[in-house]
Amino acid sequence: MSQQVTVGVLVEPTDGVRALVGDAHVVLADPSDITALPQALPRATTHVLLLGEARHEAVLRRHAALLADTGPSVTWLALPHGPAALVVLALHAAAARLDAGLLPDAVEDLARRTWSGAWTPSVARLESPSPSLGQHARSMLPGGQGFVVSVAPAPGVLTVGDAPSPEDGAPAREALYSAAPGLPDVVLRTALGVSGASECVELHGLVLDAVGRFGHARAVELFALPADQRLAAPDGARLVRCAVCDAVIARHHCPYCRVRPVDVEATPVVVPEPLGAPL
Q: Which of the four pLDDT bands, split at 50, 70 and 90, describes residue 265?
């Protein structure tokens, strides 16, 4: 059975994001448009890994169920990252060209090692993570450089200029990506300290739903991928394939069909080395 894996992302499909995605095997859909994914999916698609923000989990389930009714095998991940970080994680998944059954675990592993958050001038309407009362009060006062919000891996809010607490067991991270240009140096220094990255790179075109996620139209999403961006794959000699959709089963059941493998001797599966990272 020949596989054609497509990665779907529930984010607003702006022109900037479309340009960044290009001709990768990634499709975009606004979370509120329940009919968009079946229309955008390439016809040859056999498996879909659908990514969405944790705050959209209920609608993510609806998109996945409707998409599965149109034919392909579908699984989904609700991740605690902002929309720009999700797009980049999707690009990594599409570039890796791993077997469909290996992709969910590999993307979750990369997501766990990725820092993401935002700079925002005010936390007055920020719902998650929850700011302190002092930070709320500071939002209402004139002046100040705003706040750096962390949404993953450890949620929190830091006033710009304050020293961040060290992240226990944090992986090495090199570049902090900014979805918009022009952030002040003091903001970048605070964000670099929080993320553990060493330099900032402006990645234009990833300004996505700042109000919905961070509560302010001027919020700028930030994220830092781990220095080691490889998507991990298990030893192919111990794997079996799903009897329904032919995806590799890396755990107890197929992530797409929820089918457990029969108790037979595993046939060696060829697990190729993941391709290079897209960023």
A: low
pLDDT recorded at residue 194: 94
pLDDT reading at 269 higher than 90: no
The pLDDT assigned to 266 comes to 53
Distance CA 87, CA 204 (A): 13
Determine the average pLDDT of the residues in 113-121: 95
User: Is the pLDDT at 247 greater than 80, yes or no?
Assistant: yes
- Check residue 237 and give its pLDDT: 57
Q: Find the mean pLDDT for residues 151-178.
A: 90
Give the residues across from 26 on adjacent strands. 7
Residues 206-235 as b/e (b if ≥16 CB within 10 A, e otherwise) read bbbbbeebbbbeebbbbbbbbeebbbebee
